[in-house]
Amino acid sequence: MDKERRKKLVIPVVLLLGIFIGGVIVLRTQGIGAQVLTEGKKVLFPIASEPDADPDGDGLKNWQEETYKTDPRNPDTDGDGYLDGEEVASGYDPLIPAPNDALEGTDTNTPRPLPKNLTTYLAQILTQKISSGEIAPAQGSSLEDISNDPNLPYNQDLMDEALAQIGLRAKEYFALPEVKDTEIKISLVPATKESVVLYVFQLSQAMLFEESGGLNASEGNIIKETVETKNTEKITLLINDYKKTVVALKEVVAPSEFAEMHKNYIAIFSLLTTVLDSVKNASEDPAKAAAAIETYPQALDMVRLWDEQLLTKIASY
């Protein structure tokens, strides 16, 4: 990767301090991999009597909950992170935890649809806890009273558990995608110094970033500006460049000795496209955007590592 591109990718870590739901609930993000919900712990909605009601907001009406034998007071009966309605709609059993819960006739070769809006899902979890009384109202009216509220530590633990549950869902969005040999072009001729030089040149040409190259701003600053101003013009240019880079890389003929590294680059640029696209849509799903921002520096670390490996391999020819 050329020096300008390398310089562009090395940025300070951008932190999102909080996410807002309805403008009134502020939650401290714990990050992906936080403590998982205590096994067996369940918060329940009261059951509505109308057959067409959906009191737990999982996408199944009461009569459908009865048909599928799911819990009408729990949006995720099997506790695997997918709402009951999502599982039914995509051909999976809402009573059996993922991943081995495909119903007969479901094509498991097709990637399973990702969970929907993470912020909506987080709001549903918190609504459960508030409506059931598990999250107690704050005591007192002043900040000092609230800071001394005996319920505060327990409420915070419950919020952290909800965020951990969202974190597990977010992992699916921001996993490094698999790139197969059939998606790239691989030379069957043994690599020579000349073919490696040509490959490196074509690699650099695929990473020109023409649309965003003139912005004179690091990716980190673009992400920060997008979150703070909600202006998506710059990040859209960056996303377009990442998408073009992925397409261009798939057209570059990689020496067989560089095939795995080549697939790594395609995978990481695809992941970064997903990350930036999630930041762009932060107003629609701030919880997903928060997870994307946390994933971003981890993705850059992978780019740096593969850059070093690529340079070492090039030097051997």
Automatic annotation (TrEMBL):
Residues 63-76 have a biased composition (Basic and acidic residues). It comes from the Bacteria. InterPro entries: EF_Hand_1_Ca_BS, TSP3_bac. PROSITE patterns: EF_HAND_1 (PS00018). The chain crosses the membrane at residues 9-27. The keyword Thylakoid does not apply. Keywords: Calcium, Membrane, Secreted, Signal, Transmembrane, Transmembrane helix. It is found in: Secreted. Its main location: secreted. It holds the Pfam family TSP3_bac. Residues 48-78 are annotated as: Disordered. This is EF-hand domain-containing protein. It comes from Candidatus Azambacteria bacterium RBG_16_47_10.
